Amino acid sequence: MNVIDWLLDSDPAIRWQVMRDLTDAPADEVAAERARVTHGGWGAQLLAAQPADGVWAGGAYFPEWTSTTPTLSLLRQFGLDPATAEARRALELVRANAKWEHEGQNYFDGEVEPCINGQAVAIGAYFGQDVRGIVDRLLTEQMDDGGWNCEQERGSTRGSFESTINVLEGLLEYERATGTNPDVTAARTRGQEYLLERRLLRRLSTGELAQPRWLYLTFPNGWHYDVLRILDYLRDAGVTPDDRTAEALDILASKRDADGRWPLEHSFPDELLVDLGEREDEPSRWITLKALRVLRWAEEAGRAPVSSAASA
Hints:
Structural class: mainly alpha
Shape: globular
């Protein structure tokens, strides 16, 4: 079975993205497959697991992998259509009942940590909720170097790769939902540059690899940063790859196995509300989907890694 067929032999949440991003299927066929996320497979399972009050596992952020935030993040990544009655009902319950563990703030008002607020913005913007208040807060919290840091309230003055990727994903989703906003675009561009100046992986001061664990491919990520997550963000944001992305692209391409697939190298969740059928050190459909569309983005810009071309 070739890689594309292997990817298509999976859940609707993966199939529709493969059709859109890798096979260039007609838009109506992609839409029909995406619609199946609501009524079948993992998307339907997560919706069915929502309790009567709408708060998955009883919390906004905790338990870390089964509560409301990680569950809604998965539904967003699955591509659940926000316009469906099922999605609207689920979000109405969250808006009415979910409170942040920090001080009981309403869910779509956000809390205090930029990495968590970035996730809330991505979720809220995607599902049509008003998260402008969180966005305004994030714009005031951007640091002088262009990044964000969840330790800012405890005195940090430098950006963090982990916090910054969460905020960037949220701001991109917000722009996509609400249209171009010069202040948001400017902040997001500065945040991208913060990471690009560091070649996505390295300390600006020494050039050393900032965190070896960022080289490990994982899904779902939660708040965690890795080389594939940032590359897929840049692709999604329409950034043109350049010399600063070359090392990260080479690393990603080098992890492709002889069958053209990528492994799940590390799994953060100890539990999820749905079994994605993926295990550490085995080929991962999620990671392979993302890796292939990242390499396609690089190839279309004339920036294909050498190892990618050799193994294609």
